[in-house]
Batch of 4 targets.
Target 1
Amino acid sequence: MAQTGQDRLRAVLDAAISVTSELTIDAVLQRVVEAAAELTNARYAALGVIDRSGTGLESFVTTGFDPETIAAIGDPPHGRGILGVLIRDAVPLRLPELGADPRSVGFPPNHPPMNTFLGVPVLLRGVAYGNLYLTEKVGGGEFTEEDQEIVQLLAAQAAVAIENARLYASTTRWMNQLESLAEVGNALATEIELPRLLELVVTRLGGLIDARLVFIAMPQPAGELAIETIAGEGAERYVGRPLDPMRSKSARVLERRRSERVDSLIDDPEVDQATARQMGARAGLWVPLVVRDRAIGVLVAQDKQPSDPRFTDEDVRIAEAFAERAAVAIDLSKRVASDALRRVVSGQELERQRLARELHDETGQALTSILLGLRAVDDAADKDESRRAILSVRELVVETLHDVRRLAVELRPKVLDDFGLVAALERLAETYNEQTALAIHLEATLGQTRLTAEVETALYRIVQEALTNVIKHAHAQTVSVVLTKKGESVAVIVEDDGRGFDQAQGSGEGLGLIGMEERIALLDGRVAVESSESRGTTLSVEVPIR
């Protein structure tokens, strides 16, 4: 039974309500083409979304085609021929015979035949979002003026729905981006290792702006730029790549200290075209990393995905917000690394001074005594005197060898590398028990577990330093050292019965506690000290097992 005018109007209203109820762009576009085909009895319907340049189509949604036909046709149209006429003029167009129009450019191979045609622009406040295309009215007739009016009404509703969906998508995207920026900001604030920090920056920014490649270029000692880290398609082969400072866009951005976006790299004279071709880049975004009015590097993104490689103003804003946080984090990481290096060098120099004193005062004097003893052997008048001189020299050699071995153990005990932390601590406790009046009790429950070299070294040095402190400052009689595994971490407790210090008066800097805390902090561990002048000192260290 034929539809009455009231039935068609009700159908249009139902379709409009259905269209405007969708919130995602893809769902809106698909619902529009299905509703238009249904209301006009068209066999095929399509909606082309106009790209940002206003000269072509960025997406093309259809109904009436089966998957096999779509696959056989290949790439969707890009806005030429009759479709291009609607993009340029944005006015309704009805044709009784599509192929007879001189502006038609024909169909690609495997395309189904199409004769009758109705095209209507999707407009809102004079802005064209796209065009709605209908072909092949069922029954062979032409599209009527009434069909055109109905489709125009639907197109107007569709324009509102598309704008709402875009606003919803934009709002959702901004919320996700703000959450990501906050998350990344927290991560940047806690990460101090420069390589991992740079990797975090490029990886997360690439996800935020859908870039094919993101990299950071930083000045090198010789003055040139080089790619420090990169994330994305085939990224590993570009790490460390130098950028010609005379022909590099990155160098120019670094000099000007302002963000730049290039929609077509081939048209920009500042771009190193050879490098751009090798990296397969078509569009780019550059943001300088500036901290305290000093440019420390450039953040570069190439080719927005998936289809249009050009970045948007929104992408620029996101990259700038990201770069601002990243620059501060990178600068802080460098300063922390520099400060840590100064502390390491200072510590090494102090240790060298101590070893130099011991070699001079003890080993040097012992060797001098050995030389004098050898002279006494040479000057001996009889066998008995010679034997006594030889025995004296032998004792000096044994003592000197003992001192040299002690210094070697203090530098780096071989047993720590060969047998692990427990064996090294057992040897350390034996050495102190032999050399001092201190009674050291070691309890180790690690079993056969071997820790990483850096953890074993750190814990060994902590115990060594703690025992040295007890001997020098505590005047204790006994010390207990407990080494145990606690879940996913290992703990060391060193407790003495000597004279502690008043924690209210000071933090024990003279005991090397700051150095201990810094060493353990590098392993994400923690140090705790409890001490009083009457109850001795307890040092607790806990380090996660990596």
Note: The radius of gyration is 39 Å.
Target 2
Amino acid sequence: MSDPVLSSPATSIADRLRELRTREEQLRAGGGPAAVARQHSKGRLTARERIARLIDPDTPLLELGLWAAEGMYSEWGGAPAAGVITAVGTICGQRHMIIANDATVKAGAFFPMTAKKVLRAQRIAFASRLPLVYLVDSAGIFLPLQEDVFPDEDDFGRIFRNNAVLSAAGIPQYAAIMGNCVAGGGYLPVLCDKLLMTEGSGLYLAGPALVKSAIGQQVSHEELGGAAMHAQISGTIDYHEPDDAACLTRLRRLIGLHRPDDPQPPPPFVRHATAEPKRPASDLYPLLDADPRHGSEVREILECLVDGGSFDEYKAQYGQTLVCGTARLGGFPVGIVANQRHRVRAGSGEYQFGSVLYVDSAEKAARFVMNCNQDWLPILFLQDVNGFMVGTAAERAGIIKAGAKLVNAVSNSRVPKITLLMGGSYGAGNYALCGKAFDPRFIFAWPTARCAVMGPAQATGTLLEVIAASWQKQGRELDAAELEELRRRVAEDYERQTDIRYAAARLWIDAILDPLQTREVLIQSLEIATRAVSQEPFRLGVYQV
């Protein structure tokens, strides 16, 4: 995109969505037409073509991390979608996590965000007991950035550790080598339960050039690590396939040996009959375009998402800046914690700002989260939060203590949590309402969302003071024009960092959703998240009173 920041909040959500969708089409094109043509010239399908053939026809694909690495690695030509596709799709009636290297992007090499994206997919699969399919076509680590990919606990090696842990947990893993599989990356498919390999692919710790350099041995690609060698001599692979089409057909047959998913989740989760929402999804656009200070409120948004007539509000007259309650979503009973977007009047008479957490709302939500764990209800967090209330009165009332209660309850929840960023997601409000650091099974955002440590106005003022003070200590005085130029630059940089695409690029969220698709995606997420029941008891440890 030429403009690094989404259109201003005053722009309609439809216009912002058009900007996003245009760029998403480009991201799905991977390395572009020339790179796709090179892949086809080798007799190979692209990653997206492979996935389309692998999944059941006319079934939805929930893609995660499409925006990963957006705007990053520009000095290396960029890495659209971080060079890997991660998605949940249905194969032979059973949902699988699919991880497919995109060889049209730097030969499928692993950038730092590539590793993080694969690790995110593995975490989701582990928590939901989703079988995994790896479509391997990668040149290994992107060497110019090796120090940011190789050694740490959230880097390349952790993927292989997870392969072993997933296998020990009894979660099936299938790998199909359909191109390069080089160096340490070779451990991934070999650690899987079933391993397929196509003719012309290569699997080796060191390629022919490196072997010659290291030990002086002259050897061909096929002799060193071709499919025939691994099928006939090393015995490393299980199935030797002539091409992509045959490999994908065999893969579907192997997966088809297992029974398809049950329509009902395992107890204590349950799914009832589905009812249509009270309001159509098309009402979301005007609700989000409206100024929340002038009456737009979160209950109206909920009426567009949950099954009609199913919402029962919890403590409706108390702690009103958070709306809590139970509902059904696609037949799934859920708990909902949602920020109220407009000003409310507390029972004591004073007004409270919308999108702000007060002592009463934090304590209400903490109790409600505990109830959801007692009742085995997945929790949906709808964030439009500016943070916790500040000031003398709030501190004396114990705002930090109340916030700690909510953080404790959310952190120790045993039920699946799904988070949707509707608007602001700032500071400790992001934490208390299940931001990325608090293990939501899925975390999504609307184009209206913003994510940062504080709002733009407060942050700009604070950063400006810090920079100006630093310069003054160095003996440099700023005149009015310099101060205004500094303010402009600081504001622009902060706006760029709060743009939801900035968050999506760093995998702080899994996907940017069109509000019209939200109910469908949330239902898919619940179908995935309720596949497995946590064996951990619900416990809180030391709890503030």
Note: The radius of gyration is 25 Å.
Target 3
Amino acid sequence: MKIRVLCAASAVVLGATAAAALPVATASAASSAHLEKSAVAAAATAPTPLPVGQSDGNLSSNALQTWQTDSTVWTLAYGNGVVYVGGQFLNARPPGAANGSTTGEVSRTYLAAFNSTTGALITSFDPVIAETGSQSSPGVYTLAVSPDGSTLYVGGLFNKVNGSYRDNLAAFNTSTGALTSWQPSAYGKVNAIAASPNGQEIYIGGGFNELGTSGSTAGIQTRNYAGAVDSSGNLLPWAPVLDNALTTIAVDPDDSQVLVGGYFGNINGVFQPGAGAVDPVNGTTNLPWGANIVPDDSSCSPPAVKTIVISNGVAYLGSEGTGGGCFDGDFAVSLSSSGDSLVWQNACLGATQSLVVINGYLFKGSHAHDCAYAPGGFPQVNNNSGGWVTHHLLDQSLTDGSLGHWTPNDDDTLLGPRAMATDGKQLFLGGDFENVNGKPQQGFAIFPAKPDSVYPSNPTTAPTVTSTSSGTDTVQFPAVSSADVGTLNYNIYRDGGKTPIATLTATSWPWALPVLTYQDKGLTPGSTHTYTYAATDTTHLSGQSPASASVTVASSSPALSYNQTVLSNSPSFFWQLNDTGGTANDASPNNVDGTYTGGTTQGAAGPLTGSTATSFDGQSGNVYAQTAVNGPQAFSVEGWFKTTTNTGGKLIGFGNSQTGLSSNYDRHIYMMNDGQLVFGVWNNATETIETPNTYNDGQWHYVVATYNGTNMALYVDGELIGTNTSSSAQSYTGYWRVGGDNLNGWNLDPWGSNSQGTTQPNTYYFNGTIADVAVYPTSLTAAQVQAHFAAALVQGG
């Protein structure tokens, strides 16, 4: 369960009972430019979940217990079964030793090597790197292994290696560990080294102003922030013109371009903040980049791109950001000789430091604390000990950047894990952390491939059980999550039994837990039962949940059908959305018909057996009332929906325009990017109720929002989720609308906006299916809401 910090003055009161899912289960004033930009944002659905028990990239979230360092690791490189580790440490420490322990320590100054499988210290590799001058932060800041695996290139701030003079650059023979004769000098810190595909060009970036090898033909020449030498150390002509430090370099595997990232604002005199691509020979020709590639805001400094990795023709770039509100997420760029173009941006806040691609997934190191603007992302949540809950380790889809299910954590005290590398199957991690997953592991860690011993979390919430139809118990409970498996099975047990009576399947994240429902049928009326559940990834079974309260099985079923029950409560209108023409016919006697717009598709399967519904495209699809009414000061809004969207949108609401975006709008139910629902009215501020659980799980859900002029309530699947108070709702004449309308000003994120002008939710229009929308002139009681849901359960399909 999570509760975000709201900007509005009023608080949310969460109901004590979890919500459920059906079984098989002003804000009024805003600039038109911003509204249009937000409204046309493309809707998206979450990537297809992996099968039960499979993890993203087949990577374990359980780090090995390996040798470690006694201070920060800034860089990693892999080659021939060895992980090379560079940083500001002075010693290597044995596995399991806590921070501060010196027992078993072995001296390693700024550079060490570990076995990539076991994490054991390689004792034969023991270079002594030193800075005997006046540099205040000596260390190794970048490593690269040559394409043939024979040479380890080292850069940073130092002037001696094994007693020999080396000016911030050095190289080692990987077979013998010996220092080679390669000795170009960089007059300033070296942050990045990358070799060309054939290993003949060594591209170098940092904070230096001269580069080259003394005594060579080209000698040492001016190179501000970037330059290149060959494998013999001779200076090459590659010299892009930058106006600030370079922090990362990546060479396209086809050798057509060199990507650079850093703190600069211009490349070769062209405004291209933070990142770009240049030719691999002279570096003075910029490759065409789409104008929208690098996230930029005039109020922010360049976005400080800290990491670039390339996989299958796409570059993935991570930005540290340069201040509050400035872009510090990651983005993907498709590489092409005709010009590079943006694929996606992920606007998580949290200073991205490191990226690596493993088995079709992007893994990220950061201190992500607010991903509300990202598809499917989590909102910012206060930490009880101060600050915010942060996620230092995450993974993302290569297709759209949406967040995956790999969620181990460490305790980086600054910006996040500084380095990542891989052998294609494992993830090697470096940073300033002292613990990983709560266990001592400083500076360096290895996350191996699956299988592992990671269990789903133990359920802590007892199921909610009701019996509203003869011989049937309805069991509802929230999902749990695993640190590396997204899709789990849930075994349901009756009366303390050890054998499951049913198994359900659901996909979850730690911040997005759907709610499952099971109907236990064929029971003896009058008998009593309790229920528990447990989660499994098919290999590891969690503990069982607390037992539900005992429930007595009903001996009768609702007398009225769902439609009859709705009409018995005298709605102002009832749009079943099962039409075949352009009119949404009112099933009530009030003849308040609606009109379908483009972007709607009729005839989708509905929530009840044999019923149909309407699908909405998430971009323009709408049904609007044909007649304007005064905004009611007492009302209930009711409907059914099904979606897998990860970009949110408005389901039902009231606005002063029939089409387009209203300038006055409230009395609405909308979905956030992560699948949480919000009910809100406007009373000179947003007055809202927000669900703690998520409902974009591809199942049908029943939602009701009520307001009686003072009290607000939100129900999902028959259960009260939360309450709030508001002395009034905004007064204006308008139209009821289904499928989308303005939400500008209803962003519940504590930052209120981000540097890219991204809206939260990303789209104001809903991508999913909606059915049986009713609006009432009164506030339905909890008993009436439960009666509606009970009638639906009898007809559920």
Note: The CA atoms of residues 357 and 784 lie 52 Å apart.
Target 4
Amino acid sequence: MDNLGGMSGIGRRGPARYGPGGRFARWGGFFLALDLALRVVVASAADAAPSEPGPNLQAPNAPAANESPASGQAGAGSNLKPQTSGLTPSPAAGRLRDKLKEKPKGDFDRLQLRLKLSDRRDALHTFKPGHWIALTYATSANNFDFSGELGLTPCQQNDDPLALTGAPYFVTVERPAALPKGQKKIFEAPLFVCPSPHHPWVGVRLSNAENQAVVKRERDELQPMPPNQFLLIVLARSPESYGYLHGLPSLRLFDDAAGAPGPALYRIVAPVVGVHSPLPTSALFWTSVAYLVWDDLASDVLDADQRQALVDWLHWGGQLIVSGPRTLELLRGSFLTPYLPATGDETQAVDPARLAELDRFWSPAQKSVDRQTLAGERAWPGVRLKLTPGATFLPATDELAAERRVGRGRIVVTGFSLSQPGIRKWRGFDGLLNACLLRRAPRKFTGRDPMNRPVVWLDDDRDYEHGPHLTSLRFFVRDDAHEEQPETAEEAPDAANSANGVPGWVTSNYRDPAQVEPVGVAGWDDAASVPNAARSSLRRGAGIAVPSPRFVFWFVTLYLLVLVPANWTLFRLVGRVEWAWAAAPVISLGCGALVIWLAQLDIGFSRGVTELAIVETQGAYPRAHLTRFMALYASLSTSYDLTFDEPTAVALPFATSTEYSPLIGESLREVRFSLIPRPRLAGLDVASNSTSMARSECFFDLGGGFDWDEDAGAAQLTNGTSLSLAGAAIVRRAPVGEQGLWAAWIGDLPAGAVVRPAFRRVQLTAEATDPWSDHRPQATPRDEQALDLEGLVRLAESTRSVALGETRLVGWRLEELPGVSIEPAVTHRRRATLVVAHLARETAPPSPDQWEEGAKDPFDARRWLELDMPAQIPDPEPPAK
């Protein structure tokens, strides 16, 4: 960490000349040293005075009262030393003298950076660009109590701030910082760093609350992760027992056809868990996490916010792996109980016969010199699993592993410990891990691949590092273009009427997923398909609209009639024709006021906002993911501040164009984001007669979910939310291995309504690309203030967005969705909300890997076994709230 004298371009405050204590902070050190010196002189003088024995005092060399002079001398023996004359300072004076010799401390200790999703092995501060991250800074005030503010700005090594993609802004994250004297405090803050050709750093400043003066500046280097790399978090009582994960081919790339270990597909993060777990408090900071392993810990290592973040993350595709047997007992009655696939029924020993069955199915046929089978392995301690409703045992696991869907994600539990020593060298565990625990597609280990790839995905022959295969986490607004399975001929119209194989009902806002994704899966990308469609809709609905020709013609005609003939006639009748000249300016001003009132936003002086919200839900789960795209208009230059009610909200300026390039001489402008006391985006500047855009995301409670029930034979949908929808429709795609697309039109769906949709099979062609062409025109809003949602609706219903086996509800509403306040207040509002509800999803059962003839066994390379995790030290201190 560098202690910088200044950071040009970062922040809006200069360096401090005076500390938090005013003049005392400037001269305090001098007076303190002078005071200590005087105390030493006085104490030394007092101790140096010779002691004269009084009537009741004993001389220093006199013997004790109960012994004779002879015995006193004899008791001293050979250790008796002659008394020296002179002055002897007291111990108190010595301590003061030592204190004066100490080097005086600075006002503040160094600001120590620590990323939340990391452990003590991460000395490089590794993060994923295009994803919100949570980090902490630790420091202390040494000489006085301090009250101020902590500011963080992504920057380059030369201190120039990093610009946001597609906008002339850079963002500074701010939060309060109170430091009692001598007490170390840890402050948690969010940070967003865009992908950039420049190597990223983060500059941090500590400023005074009274005069906003900066009292300390520092800077830390960040290390970007590649977009196809994800995090695998291990929360375990003994994290060192999971070091073997570094040597598993499921979690790494292969350098060459010989099977040598290459770069990691997953960064293994295994922190030592103390009183608190170092996990973020919002699922929006978990988007780079693919898996979480939980072993031998109770749920109280997470606070309430962390628990909510974990459950939200699960419903949007996160996967939790619970290692038995003791963990199931520790989690009994916890916040995870409603979602666990099984409970521990009774303890049991996993005998060699059951281990042999696992080994037979999951171990590859190739022989390995380094990895062994489970033959001869002693019985493992385990627990008998008892399934909960909706859960199933995983195939070929002899009821030792069970899973249960949780929204888009899942939880899997094992009846044995994943830190079992016998697993470390078991060749078959990698296949079991890939298919059952990670729930990924089967792999094909190649022997004659034309591109010299040692392993590919079996289902689509994609490269092993293909991001969407490595994590199931998805957000509609971020990941609609990440195709999971190709369309069949029945699901897509003729290729001649499609762009890049995309159905004709998808607008030109679609971006081919084959393009390079700079942020990866679940990243914040303003150039993705849904943000593109939202931007187009906002452009059509916001800003300055040219008045219609009819309006201009009739108003100019009326103005001329009033100004000349009517004005002259009126004053001629009263005999004062000369007054018509004086009335002409009054008539002009009156007509000007009238046209402003009639045209309002078209040519008036006002402020307005156009908001397009997207609400995404997962089945009956009562919480939803909300994204707001806002276009802020002003006829005069205005700086807007946006304040959000939800504590999980994050916000940034929204790119006004995917092909934005700065103007000559245009400088970056600072916007400030803070989470405390409420999320706030401040300083969004709008030039005269122009529009700026903002984007925010959060999780919020809907009061209920969309309950989809197919157990009774006929499907039934219950709207348990507080939202009433219009234009609602359901699309269902056939699961893996089948073909077909079904659609059901609902129309209006009030809150609390129960409907039984009637599905019909849909055959899309070049002429018929919309399955609801006979219903949608009547459901389209006719209000002139309504936004155009056609592009977004078609994206939500596209088979490139709907996964195989998924049933999805799409609808909209025009009523305002509360939760954001704008300063200064706006006088005109236009709004619309798109609702995307994932009702159900069928998935294919796990399958084993396939090995071609001549394929290399990756375990033949002893280097795999040498990959392990180094030791680390705990850091149990909780962050300051």
Note: Confidence is low (pLDDT under 50) at residues 1-26, 46-86, 482-517, 871-879.
